[in-house]
Write a structure and sequence with these properties.
227 residues, mainly alpha, Fumarate Reductase Cytochrome B subunit, two-stranded antiparallel sheet, 11 helices, 2 strands, 3% strand, globular, disordered C terminus
């Protein structure tokens, strides 16, 4: 059996590329965002531990290099990751609509299917097959994608509140955007925890997201027609 018949393309190249760009960008955005948040907390009773932040360094070195008290480094990391996420997300959204990827792999999402798959997962009876996303996965992935779009929206308002005043009105302007950004971040962190936990429980899904392909024998029959 040759390599062409032994393997099937499970994810077109743009999918794993976008996935790992998001992974890197979101981790940097969260870590640097926590440092930015700590400079002016929304909730006075809550800040993030310094060891979990990105871009802090020492206050002495930050003041010497940037003439500030530690925020410049975090902002540099945050803006760099923002552009990485923006570009990769834009490319993926265009690809998703033009290629029909969203329609074929993420839609439709029926509440009855979500409930049935969720109950099956809680009972340990959910059959996970490579190449087939169950209703719960579809809902989580679509939710994460929408959260990233919301974070970009609210992030633009926080970055340039005057220039983007019009698009900030639905969010409650600058102060409202801060709350949207914070709780959007919390939603993404929760998604990451669930996503990593599920990957650890079903590790066979990880190699295809790296290489884009899987052995034909391991892929669900109905998925091969979509690959």
């Amino acid at each position: 059996m040759n390599a062409q018949s032994e393997y099937v393309i499970l994810h077109p190249r743009v999918v794993p590329y976008a996935h790992w760009c998001w992974a890197l960008g979101v981790i940097i955005l969260i870590g640097s965002g926590w440092q930015i948040y700590n400079q002016e907390p929304i909730f006075a009773f809550f800040t993030f531990p310094s060891w979990a932040t990105i871009g802090l360094g020492s206050y002495e070195s930050a003041e010497r290099a940037h003439n500030d008290i530690g925020l410049a480094g975090a902002l540099l990391w945050h803006f760099a990751a923002m552009w990485l996420l923006f570009i990769s997300l834009t490319v993926f959204v265009i690809y998703g609509f033009v290629s029909g990827h969203f329609r074929k792999h993420f839609l439709p999402i029926w509440p009855s299917q979500v409930l049935a798959d969720l109950l099956a997962a809680l009972r340990g009876r959910l059959d996970h097959r490579l190449g087939v996303r169950n209703a719960v996965q579809k809902l989580l992935y679509v939710g994460a994608l929408l959260l990233m779009l919301l974070m970009l929206w609210s992030g633009l308002v926080l970055w340039k509140p005057v220039q983007f005043e019009e698009i900030g009105v639905p969010l409650g302007n600058y102060e409202g955007a801060r709350y949207v950004h914070f709780f959007g971040m919390a939603g993404i962190v929760l998604f990451i925890i669930v996503h990593v936990a599920l990957t650890l429980l079903v590790p066979k899904v990880l190699p295809p997201m790296i290489t884009g392909r899987a052995r034909r024998s391991a892929v669900a029959v109905q998925a091969q027609g979509d690959a």
